Amino acid sequence: MPIEFPANDKFHEECGVVAVYGHPEAANLVYLGLYALQHRGQESAGIATSDRGKMYVELGMGLVADIFTSQRIKKLPGNIAIGHNRYSTAGVSQIVNAQPCLINYAKGSMALAHNGNLVNADQIREALVDEGAIFQSSNDSEVIVHLIAHSHQELFVNRVIEALAGVQGAYSLALMTEHEVVVARDPHGFRPLCLGRLDGAYIVASESCVMDLIEAEYLREVEPGEVLLINEDGLQSFFPFHRQETRRCIFEHIYFARPDSLIFGEYTYSVRKRMGKALANQSPVEADIVVPVPDSGNLSALGYSEESGIPFEMALIRNHYVGRTFIEPQSPIRHFGVKVKLNAVKKLISGKRVIIIDDSIVRGTTSRKIVKMVRDAGAKEVHVRISSPPTLFPCFYGIDTPNRDELIASRHTLEETRNFITADSLEYLHLENMLNMMGEDSGKFCSACFDGQYPVDIDGRGHQPVQLQLFGSETPDV
Amino acid sequence: MPIEFPANDKFHEECGVVAVYGHPEAANLVYLGLYALQHRGQESAGIATSDRGKMYVELGMGLVADIFTSQRIKKLPGNIAIGHNRYSTAGVSQIVNAQPCLINYAKGSMALAHNGNLVNADQIREALVDEGAIFQSSNDSEVIVHLIAHSHQELFVNRVIEALAGVQGAYSLALMTEHEVVVARDPHGFRPLCLGRLDGAYIVASESCVMDLIEAEYLREVEPGEVLLINEDGLQSFFPFHRQETRRCIFEHIYFARPDSLIFGEYTYSVRKRMGKALANQSPVEADIVVPVPDSGNLSALGYSEESGIPFEMALIRNHYVGRTFIEPQSPIRHFGVKVKLNAVKKLISGKRVIIIDDSIVRGTTSRKIVKMVRDAGAKEVHVRISSPPTLFPCFYGIDTPNRDELIASRHTLEETRNFITADSLEYLHLENMLNMMGEDSGKFCSACFDGQYPVDIDGRGHQPVQLQLFGSETPDV
Amino acid sequence: MPIEFPANDKFHEECGVVAVYGHPEAANLVYLGLYALQHRGQESAGIATSDRGKMYVELGMGLVADIFTSQRIKKLPGNIAIGHNRYSTAGVSQIVNAQPCLINYAKGSMALAHNGNLVNADQIREALVDEGAIFQSSNDSEVIVHLIAHSHQELFVNRVIEALAGVQGAYSLALMTEHEVVVARDPHGFRPLCLGRLDGAYIVASESCVMDLIEAEYLREVEPGEVLLINEDGLQSFFPFHRQETRRCIFEHIYFARPDSLIFGEYTYSVRKRMGKALANQSPVEADIVVPVPDSGNLSALGYSEESGIPFEMALIRNHYVGRTFIEPQSPIRHFGVKVKLNAVKKLISGKRVIIIDDSIVRGTTSRKIVKMVRDAGAKEVHVRISSPPTLFPCFYGIDTPNRDELIASRHTLEETRNFITADSLEYLHLENMLNMMGEDSGKFCSACFDGQYPVDIDGRGHQPVQLQLFGSETPDV
Amino acid sequence: MPIEFPANDKFHEECGVVAVYGHPEAANLVYLGLYALQHRGQESAGIATSDRGKMYVELGMGLVADIFTSQRIKKLPGNIAIGHNRYSTAGVSQIVNAQPCLINYAKGSMALAHNGNLVNADQIREALVDEGAIFQSSNDSEVIVHLIAHSHQELFVNRVIEALAGVQGAYSLALMTEHEVVVARDPHGFRPLCLGRLDGAYIVASESCVMDLIEAEYLREVEPGEVLLINEDGLQSFFPFHRQETRRCIFEHIYFARPDSLIFGEYTYSVRKRMGKALANQSPVEADIVVPVPDSGNLSALGYSEESGIPFEMALIRNHYVGRTFIEPQSPIRHFGVKVKLNAVKKLISGKRVIIIDDSIVRGTTSRKIVKMVRDAGAKEVHVRISSPPTLFPCFYGIDTPNRDELIASRHTLEETRNFITADSLEYLHLENMLNMMGEDSGKFCSACFDGQYPVDIDGRGHQPVQLQLFGSETPDV
C-alpha cells in the first residue's frame, strides 16, 4: 500500500514573498526569488504582474520550478511584480488559497502576497461579514484586502496603512496596484523582510538569499512597522503605527530561514552555530562523536563539536531522492518512516557514545526512530541535544504548530520525553541561554512558543492607533 | 509548429448546472450529471457538497471525466451537492473562474453554480464596490453572491429572492447552503432548467438528458421566474417576481442542447428536424444529395431531405480522434483547419449537385473551407442551407458570440456572404418561418441575436419589484 | 468506484501503417497520416525516420496527438519516415510492443511497421529461437525482422522478399533502411494498403483517407503480393510470390475502415449503404422508424431506410465526451454500461415500431442494453437488423476477436440470441447476400470469420516458393 | 528562455541492480532497493518478476518513486524479482534502453539487469550480427542475452557462465529465469555487488545501503569472478573464470557510492574522510576555514579539517529544491549555472582565506563558478583541494566520462587549470597517496582514469578461458 509520508515532523513556515518594482523582467526575477524561497512553502506558488494598467496572475499547486514554464512567465508582462510561496497546511491544500490574490474593488485592482498570521483576523472577518462582505478562502490575506477596499483614504498607500492599523499579529506583506508596490512589516517585526536593488529596480523579499541569487545589492531590512511605497517617484518610507517592541521570530533562526540568509541583522548560519556552542557549554556529555540530524542539525552540531572538542561526524546520511509517496511492503518490514530518508553509517557509530543534535522535537516520533536507528547501528550510548528550548505553546504569528496535545514537550516531562525517544540523555538549550546568546538583541525576539509570553494579545483587541498625519513626512535614506 | 485549433467556429454556451438534494451519493450523481452536460462547457468543472454543516468543493480545469477521480469524489461527502461545467472564453481560462464558488458570509456558507449572463452585472458590481465590496473573478456569479450576502432577509431563500430581484438578464441558478438547495430561473426563462426525482431525492439540471443518465424521473421544467427551495421539508415553489414574457433562447434548440434533451417543452431533436423541413419548403433547390455538416447539421439535413425528397447522405466524415493541438507541417500543405476534423467522401459527391446543411454560420471561414472541400471532391454545384437566420447581433444572455465585426452576416449582404463562402447558392431559414414553426410557443422565444429585439433592456435599468409577500404561499404540485 | 469501460463490444483492427519517401517533412506527414488512421489503433504509436544514414525513432503509449509534440517531431529529422498505430490487446499494453521497431543487424539498420497477423509466426519463431534468436516482444513483426536479418540476399528488398516468402498470413508492411522504403502486401491482400504522391514524394498508407488529409494524389492500391521498393531511383514494383487468390478482409468494409476511405477498389461508405439495402430486401419488417447504433450502424441504417422506405431517425444520441474511465455510484443505479455513451430520444421512439441497425454483434451484451434502452423509451416493438452475417469463427489475419466461447453467435441459435438481446426479431445479413452485393469481386473476400473457410492454412505450412528470378524485371506504371 | 541544467559537471555511474529470491513481496523489496540506489541512475528504472513460470516486467522513465505506483507493483507478482536503475547518458534517453530486459529464447524466458560496461561488446555484437542476430538497443546487456541464448549448455547458470567467458570488462549482473536467480561479478570486480538475507530470502544489491533499508542481514560481497545460483535448493557459488587481479573502481569510493554503503570491504564514508586527511598532509595551506562543495566534498573536507586543524564550515549552502529546468531572465543577470544550486554565506567567508574541497574536477567550469562565488563573498584567498587525482583518461568500465578534450586536466597543466578556475592555489590528491591510503588493498583498485593503466585490454581481445569443469564443485559458505 502506498503511504504518504507523515507530515514532516517539523514546524512549518507559512510563506515567502517577493516584490519587484521597475525591472523589465519583473516576473522572471520574482520567479527566481520564489525559487530561492522555496523552503518557506511548497504547496502552491503564484506571481502577479502589472503592465500598462492591467494586471495578470498565474497560480499553481506544487513547486515553483514545476508550476512556471517559460510560456507561463511570458503571460506575465510588465515591470512590476509580486510573488508568493505557500506552505501546505494539512487538509486545506486548495488552489483557492494560493496567492497572490488579485482583486478588483472601487479604486481599481490590487494584488497581495502575505507572510504571517493575524491574531484578530476572525474578529475583523466577523465584522466585515456583518456588513455584507463575503469570503472565498480561509486566508488572512482576504481580510486585509477587504480592509483596504473599505478604507476611505484616497491614496492606496494610505488605504493600506488604515487597513493595517486595524490588524494585529504578524505580517510581511507585498502589495501591488497598477502603478506601484507597497510593502509592509508589522510593528513587532515577527517575520523577516528585506530590501535590495538591481539595475535601478527595487527588490523586496523575505530573505536575503533572494538578493544573492539575482545578484541584487542588499540594502537593508524593512524595519518593524515600516511601510514602503515604491513607484515612479522612487521609494518612500513611512512609520505610521505606534512603535511596538520588536519581537522577531526566533524560529526563523532556529529552523526556517536558509543558513545563507541575513535576517534580523544576523546570518542564520552563525546563530545556529552559536546555539550549538551554547548547548555544548550548558549540557556537556562525555561522548565519542557529535552527529547532526541532516540538514536541520548540521550547524548546531558543528558548533557543539567545536565547543566540546568532540569530533563531528555526518553519520546519518540523507537519501536525496525521497519522493512524496513510497510503497511499503505489507510485511514483515513495517514502519519505514524515517528510514527512507536517513541511514546510519554503522562503522562510525558502532561501539561509540553518540551525541545526536537536532534543532527541535515536535511529536518525538522521528527522534525516537532516529535514536533506534543509531542504537541498531551499534551505538553504546545515545545522547540527544536539541538546540532550542522545548516547544510548549502554539504559535499565532505564522507558524504551523501541531496542537498542544501533539507537542510532546507540552504534555511530558523532560524525563518522560527522554524515555519516549529512548535516549540515554536528553537536553534542550535553555531559553535564557538561547536569548543571552543573541547579545544585545536578546530582548527583541518572540519566544512565545517556549514560554507562552505572547507579545500581541491573542484575543486580538486592537491597540494600534494609526498616525496618518505622518504620511509622506519621512523619506528613508536607503 | 503546433497550432491550437482555432476557436471552434461556433457559438458557445457558457455553462451547465446540476443540483442534488437528499441522496447519499449526491456528489457522484452530480458528477454523472456534469458528464451528461459536458457539451455545455469544457473549460472547467466543479462540485460542491454539504455534509453535517460543513461544505466541500473540488474544482479543476478540463473535462469532468479527467478532473474527477474516485479519490476526489470521496472528498465530497454529504447528500446535498451542486455542480457546474464552464465553457472556456478565450483568454480568461483560469481556475479562479471555475464554479461552484463557495463563500462564507454573515449567515454561514453558500455555494453557487450559474448558467446565464446578467445584463446589469456591471452596474451592480460598481455599486457594490462603491460600498467596499471586492471581486476576485469576472463572473456574474460573484455579483449574485454579494447581493445575497447583503440582503437583510432572514431566510436564505428570501435572501436569494431579494438578490435576484435586483438583477436582470439570464440565469438558471443552483445554490446550496449547509442544509438546503435553492434553484432559480429568471422570469424570461432564457436558459433551460428542469426538475427530476430519484429514490426520494430531488435532482435539478440544465437539461433532461441528466435525468436519463442517472435514471431519475423527469418531473417538469423549473418555470420562468420560479424559485425552488428544497430542504428537509421537501420542495417548495415560489414565484416572487413580476411576471415577464417568456423568452427562451432559441439557440438552445438550434445548437446548444443535446438532441435527446427535452427543453422548453420540446425535444431538441424534433425542433431541429422541423427546422430542416421548414428550410426545404422555404428555400428549395434542385440537387442530388443533402449532406449535413456533422454533427451540428445532422438533424436539419434529415428534415430537409425528408421534406424535399432529395437523398440524405452523410458525405462529410468526422475524425473522432481530433485532439486539442495538432502539428502542421511548414510547407507546402498549409491551413489544415477543418480538414483534420472532416473529410468528404469523393464517390458520393463527384459530379453531384450537393446541398450542405448546417445550423449557423459565424465567421464564414469554416463554411468556406467546407464548400471548398466539397468542390474539390468533385461537386458540380454546392448549395448551402442554414437552419437558422443570419446572426446579426450579439447575445447578452449567456452565449459567447464574436464581436459584430466578426459575424459575417452583420457586415455583409447575403450575396456577399455567398460569394465569400464560394457557394452556388446560400439561404438561411427566415426568422418568421423559424418562429412559426414553433407553433403556439412562437412568441415565447428570444430572437435578439437575429433581430436585435432584446427582451431585457441591455442598459440594465431595474424593473422587477420583488413580491416578498408571496413567500411560502404557493406550494407546487410536482 | 471508478470502472474502466468494458472493452468496447466490437472487433478490433490491430494497426495502421504509413510511409513517406522523399519529403523534407517526412515525420510530420507520417504524423498526419497516423492521425487520420487513429481509428485503426489507439494503444500506442510511433514514428521512425532516416537522415543521412542515421535512424531515429519516437514511441509512446496513447493517441497520436498526445504522444507527438512539435518537440518530438523535431527529434525526427530526414525525408524518409514510417509510422504505426497499434491497437490495445487486453493485458499486453506495453511499450515494448510499440512500433515501428528499429533494429541493428549485420547489414545496418531497419525499421518496420506491420499491420496484420502471421499464421505461422509461432513455428518460425520456434525455429529461430532454436538457432539462438531472442525475442523481446510478442509481435509478429519481430519474426519478420529476424527473417530479414537471416537472409543471405545482398539487396535489402531481396532480403525482405526472402523473409516474406517464408511467412504466411496477413501483412501490410512498411519497412525502412537508411536509404529506402520497402512496402509489401501479402499475396491474399487481406489488409488494405495504398500508394499516393505528394510534391514528388511517395506516400504509402493503410487507407486513402491519409491521402485526403495531406492532400496527396491517390495513385492506386498496393496489389496483393506486391512489393514496392522506393529509393532515389524512384519506385519499383515486384511480384515475387506465387500468385494466390485475393482474399480481402470484408470486415474492413463492414466496420474497420473509415467510410471516406477507398479500399479494395470501393468506398467503404458505399459498401455499407449497400449492405443496409441488401438487408432491407432480405429481412424486411413492418416498422415506423429505422434507427442506427451510432456511428457503426449509420450508413447501413441509411441504406435500409432508403430501400424500405421506412424513415431514418438518429434516435440514439452519442455523448461525444466519453472518457476512458467513469465513476459509477455504489447504488442504486448500477451498470451504466452503454448509457454513458448513448441515450435514446424518447419522443421519437415512444409508441413506435423500431428497427435498430448495427454492423455486428459480438457478445450480445451491448445489443441487449440498447434494446432495453429503446424499450424503456417506449418502443412498441424492437427489431434488430445486423448488416453482416453472424460471426462464428476467430480471425487469424489481424483482427482481435474474442474467444469463440464469447462470440454469442457461435454458441447460440439465432432464436437464442434474439431472446438474449430481448428483441422482437433479429436478422443478420446472409453471407451469400453480402458477397453477391460485392458484384464481380464477390469471390475476392475472406469470409472465414463467418464460414470458417480459412484461405491460408492456419497450421501454417509454407506454400509460397519465392520467385527471386523476377526481381527487378517489372516496373510498375504508376 | 528555459534552460536545461548543463549536464551535472560530475562523472556518472551507469546503473544499480537489485535481485530478490524467495520473498512473497519480491517486487516491493526490489522497489525499495532501487529507491536506496537511486543515486546510481535516474533516467529509467524497471522491475521484472517471475511467478509460476510466467514473467512480468514494468519499465519507466524517471525516478523510481514516480514510476512505481502501488498499482504497478501489483502487476508484478511472484517471489523472484530483479530490478535496475539506469543513468541518463546524453542523447539516448529512451525507453528501449530501460532494463531489466526480458526476452524469450529457445529455452524459455530470462530477464537481465546489468551494471558495468563491456570492453569487447562491439566485437561480439559484430560477430553475432554476422550470424543473423538483431539488436534493438545500444545496451551491452543485449550482447549478454544473445550470448546466453546461443550457448549450448543445458543449465541456465552454465549458459550464463559460457556467455560471460566471452566478454571482457565490467559487470555486476542480476539474471532471472522462471525459477532461479543468477548473479555474477566480473573477475576484476570493477563494480560492487553484495549479498544479504531477509526472512529466508536472498537479496543481492549493488550497495549495502539496500540491506539497511529493507533490514536485511548483510552477508558479504559477491566476490570478483563469482557466479551465484539461487534457486529452491538454496545458494550455490561458482568461480568458473580464470582468476584475475582485483581492480575495484576507486571512483565508487571517491564519488559514486553512498557514504553509508559498505563496498569493497570498507565504508565509503571512512575512505572519503581519509582522502581528506591525506590531502591535508600532502597539500597543506595556511587558511582560516575549510569549506566543502556540498555534498560531494563534505567528508573529505571534514577529514581535511580534522587533520589540518583548520575549522570546517559549511559555507556553501545547497538549495534543496533545484528542479530540472529553470527559467533564466534574458538580461542582465546571466549564466546562473551553479548559483541556483549553491550560495555562499558571506559572513563566514568575508575576509577569510578559504580552502574549498571537492572530490573531483571534470570540465572546470563548475569549479570556476564556485571560486568566483566565494571570491565575490569576500574571500581573501581561495585555495582549491581535490580529494582525488586529476582525471586524465576515459573510463571503459561503466562510468560516463566526457571526451578527453573536455577533461580539463587532460589538456592543461595544473597551473593552467588553477588559472582557469581562478584559484590562488590548486592541488589534487596524488595517485600514490590515494592508493597508499587504501592500505594492503592499495593494489586492488583500478586507477585507469588517472594513469591510463587499463586492467582489461580495451581492444577487447579475449583472454578468459572458461573452466566449465569446475561447475558445481564449489559451495560457498555464506
Automatic annotation (TrEMBL), chains A, B, C, D:
In the C-terminal section; belongs to the purine/pyrimidine phosphoribosyltransferase family. It comes from Nitrospina gracilis (strain 3/211). It is an enzyme of class 2 (transferase). Its cofactor is Mg(2+); [4Fe-4S] cluster. This is Amidophosphoribosyltransferase. It comes from the Bacteria. One of its GO terms (molecular function) is magnesium ion binding. The keyword Magnesium applies. Catalyzes the formation of phosphoribosylamine from phosphoribosylpyrophosphate (PRPP) and glutamine. Binds 1 Mg(2+) ion per subunit. Binds 1 [4Fe-4S] cluster per subunit. Residues 15-233 form the Glutamine amidotransferase type-2 domain. The gene is purF. Gene3D superfamilies: 3.40.50.2020, Glutamine Phosphoribosylpyrophosphate, subunit 1, domain 1 (3.60.20.10).
